[in-house]
UniProtKB/TrEMBL annotation:
Protein name per its UniProtKB record: MBL fold metallo-hydrolase
Signal peptide: none
InterPro entries: Metallo-B-lactamas, RibonucZ/Hydroxyglut_hydro
PANTHER family: HYDROLASE C777.06C-RELATED, HYDROLASE C777.06C-RELATED-RELATED
Matches recorded under Gene3D superfamilies: Ribonuclease Z/Hydroxyacylglutathione hydrolase-like
Domain called Metallo-beta-lactamase: residue spans: 68-269
Lineage: Bacteria, Pseudomonadati, Bacteroidota, Cytophagia, Cytophagales
Length: 302
């Protein structure tokens, strides 16, 4: 019995020190509820019947070293920083770095909170691809963050691994997406035990040189773009925002066994997406097929 107690204690200790990903937000760039939205779905949030949800972002946490990294700095940065501080029981505002996916409004504009008007941060490492770096350095107000040394831009190279510490590495990889201001990347996070793939924004899967089936098979977790569930979801041409529909993604992955489908977590939901509401037939069918829906505040052990 004594040996069992010791074993359980040591197992719990190891469990508590395992690196993990914390889901800081799950919605598309406009958040939930979205500005100007008066549909019943948004009114539930405006009137307090459902909680508001933050824009899609992740934190990578190493409890052993107490290091914390963000993927993307969203318009909800201040709330997400507080969520991270509460989750890690660490009141410090220090971040080991921020990795940016691209230059659409939901993914970098939270950097403003690092400026002199708010945190007045010092040399926060911001990891960016070449066009993203150029965009920040040559356009105000972001260039002021650079000149005042609120941020320290670290260059990223496509498909090149970066060692964060002895236990965690991260790799950016380019994906097709509207490139008005920068390239777009997903990220692959790797520990000694797990591989986590993150693709919050992409155009249609057919435009990517990779096979999503292979990407899922090679990972332990795959958090992927689920902006819209199906065509006709918004009252304007959806070709303007050509994300893969969840219905298309499930069709593409339909031949995977359920054990592989269970690796897939949908995220980056538009305010119109029925996956935001667990009672909808679309949510129920998605879960029945084995897929998962990302939840704000969720922890994924690595």
């Amino acid at each position: 019995m004594r040996f069992l107690i010791i074993f359980l204690f040591l197992s719990a200790l190891v469990h508590a020190q395992t690196p993990y990903v914390l889901v800081l937000g799950v919605t598309q760039d406009g958040g939930y509820p979205q500005a100007g939205c008066n549909t019943p779905n948004c009114l539930d949030a405006w009137e307090g019947r459902r909680p508001p949800l933050y824009v899609t972002s992740l934190a990578i946490v190493d409890p052993l070293t107490k290091q914390r990294w963000l993927i993307d700095a969203t318009p909800d940065f201040k709330y997400q920083l507080q969520l991270l501080k509460t989750n890690t029981q660490n009141p410090s505002n220090d971040l080991a770095g921020i990795f940016l996916t691209h230059a659409h409004i939901g993914h970098y504009t939270g950097l403003m909170h690092l400026g002199r008007e708010a945190l007045g941060a010092k040399n926060v490492k911001v990891y960016a691809m070449p066009l993203m770096q150029r965009f920040l350095e040559n356009n105000g107000p972001w260039s002021q963050l650079v000149s005042l040394k609120n941020i320290d831009i670290q260059p990223l190279t496509d498909s090149t691994w970066i060692v964060l510490n002895e236990r965690i590495s991260i790799q950016p990889f380019t994906v097709p997406h509207r490139a008005e201001y920068s390239e777009t990347v997903g990220f692959r996070i790797r520990t000694n035990n797990k591989t986590f793939v993150y693709i919050p924004d992409i155009d249609k899967w057919s435009l990517w040189k990779k096979d999503l089936n292979d990407v899922v098979r090679a990972a332990d977790y795959a958090f992927i773009d689920a902006t819209f569930f199906a065509d006709g979801e918004i009252p304007r041409p959806m070709s303007e925002v050509p994300h893969p529909f969840v219905s298309e993604t499930m069709k593409l992955l339909e031949k995977l066994p359920k054990t592989e489908k269970q690796k897939v977590y949908f995220t980056h939901f538009n305010h119109t997406n029925p996956l935001l509401r667990p009672e909808t037939k679309e949510f129920i069918q998605t879960a029945k097929e084995g897929y998962k829906v990302a939840v704000q505040g969720q922890m994924i052990e690595l």
